[in-house]
Amino acid sequence: MSDSSSLPTIHWTEDGAERSALWRSEAGLPPPKRVVIADDQTPADTAFRLASEGVALLWRGDFQNARQLLQAMARRTDRKPKRAPKPPANMTEAFHKHRLAQSQRARTLGMLLLPFDAGHVVPLRRAPEVTEACTQVYGPATAPYVASMRELLGLIGAYEWRKKGVEIPALGERIHPWYGVFSPVRGEYLDLVAKEALPSDKLAFDIGTGTGVLAALLAQRGVRRVVATDQDPRALACARDNLGRLGLTNQVEVVEADLFPAGRAPLVVCNPPWVPARPSSPVEHAVFDPESRMLRGFLAGLADHLEPAGQGWLLLSDFAEHLGLRTREELLGWIEDAGLKVLGRSDIRPRHPKASDPDDPLHQARKAEVTSLWRLAASQNR
Fold first, then answer.
1. Of 268, 275, 206, 273, whose CA–CA distance to 242 is shortest?
2. Which of 60, 91, 131, 314 maximizes the CB count within 10 A of its CB?
3. What percent of the chain clears pLDDT 70, i.e. is strictly above it?
4. CA 222, 225, 227, 233: dihedral to nearest 10 degrees?
5. Nearest CA to 210 among 273, 134, 164?
6. pTM of the model
7. Domain 165-378 carries which CATH code?
8. Distance, CA of 257 to CA of 252 (rounded, Å)
9. Which PROSITE patterns match (predicted)?
């Protein structure tokens, strides 16, 4: 959520006069340096060419026409080249090419901009009411600003998800994810937690709680007290909201912490980001963990936060291993270096559509992926 006093300014020329407004970007992107005016008469080919060259288009036409233009630009971005590109040498190269293509696509489509009046009002024909969706993410808007249409559509989608919630079969309830907080749409790891025998029903720590779904699942399974941590303000608020909806606030305490809360517990659970790569936006922080910092931090501090005979449950996919971004030997080395031992492991295959999509550029890695619950304990020689 941005304080308007800290927002940068975007500048452009319109009707022969210099104009400016505040610039909003949840991804933290700087305002485009060159901006031209576009409207209902702007051809899609022209818009796509300008956007590809880094020129932003500030829309002055009909809102729904802008939406159609963005779709037309997306089709041009996704169009396969006439000459087939050289296939990647391995999955690591395929991953980096895929990430680069995603980044270029996002940058190009992010060049279609919309004007906003104070109060998050879009002053265009047939524009939807977006005040509440924008306020949830940006906070109040007391002055006009400019933002990407693609980002606005993401905000609207997140607003709908937050309202409707996501059905969690392992929980038998809905979880309501907030914008920028990872949505538990992949339920395999939750199934693992739902089935694993609890070492104790006294106390559990949920490290990096996000939406609070794991804390809720542990509480529902009968853990009498759960301490759920996160350091992201949005995640903390989201978790408290979900736990309140589920009537679990007396069982689960949500605290701000960088990984661990104070003290020890007989069960410490963590579902860190699975891929050691740099996120390109705040939304990606739950998926990409540069240099496996959170994973390594959890492992390094786990033994000091386990009660005697306590267990640490690490929920981790081996997707990064199939991409060549991390090896199993590295993971086992970090576990050993942290003074931990492996008690056992439960595995499950992914069920998401990409795992069975042969056209996905990372299909080979997705097809081989396994998600695991690693049961860890402190070594005796600590």
1. 206
2. 314
3. 96
4. 80
5. 273
6. 0.91
7. 3.40.50.150
8. 15
9. N6_MTASE (PS00092)
